[in-house]
What does this fold into?
Amino acid sequence: MRNKRLDLLRGIAILLVMGVHVPAFPTWVRIGWLGVDLFFVLSGFLISNLLFAEYRKSGTISVKRFYLRRAFKLYPSFYLLILGTIVFSMFTNRELQPVHVIGELVFVQNYMGGLWGHTWSLAVEEHFYLILPLLILWMTRRSESEPFRQLPMFFAIAAVACLGLRIITSEMLPFSHAAQFEPSHLRFDSLFFGVLLAYCQNFRSAVIVFWTSRCRKLLFFISFFAILPSLILPYSNRFVYTLGFSLAYVSFGGLLLLALYGDDGQAAPITRSSPAERVLQKIGLFSYPIYLVHAPMAMMFAALYNWLVERAWPANPYLLFGAYLCSSILAGGCLSKLVELPMLRIRDRYLPRLADPAIAIPRPAPEGPRELKGVFPEPLPNG
It folds into this structure.
């Protein structure tokens, strides 16, 4: 069963991103990049939760099955976009750089350059998807009693390493989106933070209870103040693309916990959504295909705007922006209905999920602070 609150967060993330490529609202353009960082935290949380759920049920994970299931989810729609781009370029006599085509095909466009400016984030996630199952499998084979107890240490190493590499890169290279935002080795910590949250949920749930009940207000203020620098400063500011990235994933991780858990530390009950929430949830449901098509739609509407201006016709940028948003959502929904969902049905028929992840695991709150035993208390029994 899908979690409506996660779909809501996906909807917020994709709307943030969509505001970047059509500059109708300067503030939206300036902060829209944060949508990708929210996606990173959500992806790390959701993907690792799938793996942890499989381990909790079977005592191991199937890396091959994981890769195949992800391929059915990600590749059909993505390669259709790339094929469509190549065909369109051939018919319009637009020259494509072979290195950019190769970069897209093998998901290294965030290092080699690509055909589109937005697919770099898919490469970051793809690289992380390749590494994470292998790391978790290695942990399960090292120890059977509590294989993931070192995961917080791995996150700490990743957080320090990525931050250090971002600082070094900022010293060595002038600012550019390709240099500071896109390389996987500078962004893995955002995804890994989502993994840390999923680990706590599955194996250290008392930590989740502690932060979402007793320290809920503190968690809110940490999340709020951590994101402030990225909201106030331009994304080209050195602080933003070094420490700001770290603060952003801390903020989004706090937002994720506040969305999933109530003030009693238990899984927040599913309540009837408002009309606006239902719209955002629906957008979040189709966030991946919308993300794929929104840049081509932005290019199309930018060309339309220039065409109207050249002919001195009325060209209301806000009206065109609204049309761009609606068209992107509609096109993404069509792509999902025609390609993504049929492929997922085939996947689930031949490669069914081995375990259903519990997005929020309700546990009784600890009676006293002694039961917390520090930052990471003793593991709760696997359920």
Residues 362-383 have pLDDT under 50 and may be disordered. The two ends are 18 Å apart (CA to CA). The longest helix spans residues 317-350.
